[in-house]
Amino acid sequence: MDDLINKAEHHMERGEYQQARKIYNEILLIDPNNAIAYNKLGVISVREENLEQAKIYFIKALELNPKLSSASSNLGNIYFEKGNFEKAKDCYEKAIAIDPDNPVPYNNLAVIYKKSKDIDKFVKFYKKSIELSTHKLNDTKIHFKKKEAKKLPYMAILGFLIVMLILYLLISFKR
């Protein structure tokens, strides 16, 4: 299942929505209660400017998994686009309650407060969004550095083996 999700995600990153949609629908044939697949189908629908269909997918995702923060935030975006800022705000607040370390709903709330000219709350939520984004970026850098550090011994061994193979081949050709 993870392989299918990764494959679909790869298509989404490349803007290949039809291929991604096909895979997410395949996932739903295997697991009709897969909230992530419904959420991603909603994202595809948004990108294709079909907000009504996206809303249906996000609501379904939340019915299946009320703790899926991204689906709540995405549903909030639909309400925001339709000008229903109160419902959008409720969705963003729910997303924050589910995953307080996700910077996206904080940023979305900041936008709502900016539109309503509540500058204090705008600044508060915008700062929180920046803080969390910076923290995630630093965590990603640390994870990447650790991952790269783990590769170094293997790369050294591989390099050594390649050098030895080349030397062996050179010596073999001289004979």
UniProtKB/TrEMBL annotation:
The entry's keywords: Membrane, Repeat, TPR repeat, Transmembrane, Transmembrane helix
GO molecular function annotations of the record: protein O-acetylglucosaminyltransferase activity
Top-level taxon: Bacteria
Coiled coil start-end: none
Biological process according to GO: protein O-linked glycosylation
InterPro entries, per database record: OGT, Sel1-like, TPR-like_helical_dom_sf, TPR_2, TPR_rpt
Ranges occupied by TPR repeats: 35-68, 69-102
Transmembrane segment boundaries: 152-171
Listed name of the protein: Tetratricopeptide TPR_1 repeat-containing protein
Organism: Tepidanaerobacter acetatoxydans (strain DSM 21804 / JCM 16047 / Re1)
